[in-house]
TrEMBL record:
Protein name in UniProt: Dehydrogenases with different specificities (Related to short-chain alcohol dehydrogenases)
Similarity comment: family membership: Belongs to the short-chain dehydrogenases/reductases (SDR) family.
Keyword Transcription regulation: no
PROSITE patterns assigned to the protein according to its UniProt record, in alphabetical order: ADH_SHORT (PS00061)
Single GO MF descriptor: sorbitol-6-phosphate 2-dehydrogenase activity
InterPro entries: NAD(P)-bd_dom_sf, Sc_DH/Rdtase_CS, SDR_fam
Listed EC numbers: 1.1.1.140
Length: 263
């Protein structure tokens, strides 16, 4: 349908996993240009090349640590230099480190907050400065159901995501006079996703005293619709929020959780 025809987008954490899936979907929905921003620059380049081959969209791969102010600013400047505008920021970059509160290393806790919350602030601020001058734009944060409800032995991640919803609502108020919308998407457990496969099953098995197979069964059993969240489930909502169909929505945190979270 090309609901995003002609848009220029940045996707942070776009090299792999959910970010990669979002970037591909944005291109299929008509974005004319997409910046793939990731700390893993070689994978970002591969993803960018794949998108261009598959869709014809222009792409730019940049190495960005979202906690580094100058790198974030340069990512935004280079996007505008290359493509002439910035219509959409998808702030997807994030990390998860899980421990019981009595055992949580302070530096690890702070690192999660730095990437997930401070990094979101830096990216949103840089994008907003461009969008205010344009008097249009759209910022979407990839949040989590853990931004709505505390997460067992996962305090840093949950705290960062609760903060992200507050930041989303506050930025939405700041930018509404300029016609810029700011929303968050709160996925459920992406049980077949890269983060779970490469990290979370192992972390949750360690912190909860379960096998990896038991972890999956536990999290599936918590979902009223009986399955994990998929990349496509999340992409569907991202595209809706980025389109004119959501033109009267700002400051929202939309659950994509199969009924697991309803607030």
């Amino acid at each position: 349908m090309e609901r995003l025809k002609g848009q220029v987008a940045i996707v942070t954490g776009g090299a792999q996993g959910l970010g990669e899936a979002i970037a591909h979907r944005l291109a299929r929905e008509g974005c004319r240009a997409i910046t793939i921003a990731d700390i893993k620059v070689e994978k970002a380049r591969e993803t960018a090349e794949e998108i261009t081959r598959a869709t014809g969209a222009e792409t730019l791969a940049v190495q960005v640590d979202v906690t580094n102010e100058e790198q974030v600013e340069e990512m935004t400047r280079e996007t505008v230099r290359r493509f002439g505008a910035l219509d959409l920021l998808v702030a997807n970059a994030g990390i998860l480190i899980a421990y019981d509160i009595t055992e949580f290393p302070a530096e690890a806790w702070r690192r999660v907050i730095d990437v997930n919350l401070f990094g979101y602030f830096l990216c949103a601020r840089a994008a907003a400065r461009v969008m205010v001058n344009q008097r249009k734009g759209n910022i979407i944060q990839i949040n989590s159901k853990s931004g709505k409800k505390g997460s067992f032995r996962n305090s840093a991640y949950s705290a960062s995501k609760f903060g992200g919803i507050g930041l989303t609502q506050s930025i939405a108020l700041d930018l509404a006079p300029y016609g810029i919308r700011v929303n968050a998407v709160c996925p459920g457990n992406l049980l077949d996703g890269t983060l779970w496969q490469e990290s979370l099953y192992e972390q949750y098995a360690r912190t909860q005293g379960l096998t990896k197979e038991e972890v999956r069964l536990k999290y599936e059993a918590q979902v009223p619709l009986g399955r994990g969240c998929t990349y496509e489930d999340v992409c569907n909502v991202v595209v809706f929020l980025a389109s004119d169909e959501a033109s009267y929505m700002t400051g929202q945190a939309i659950n994509v959780t199969g009924g697991q979270e309803m607030r």
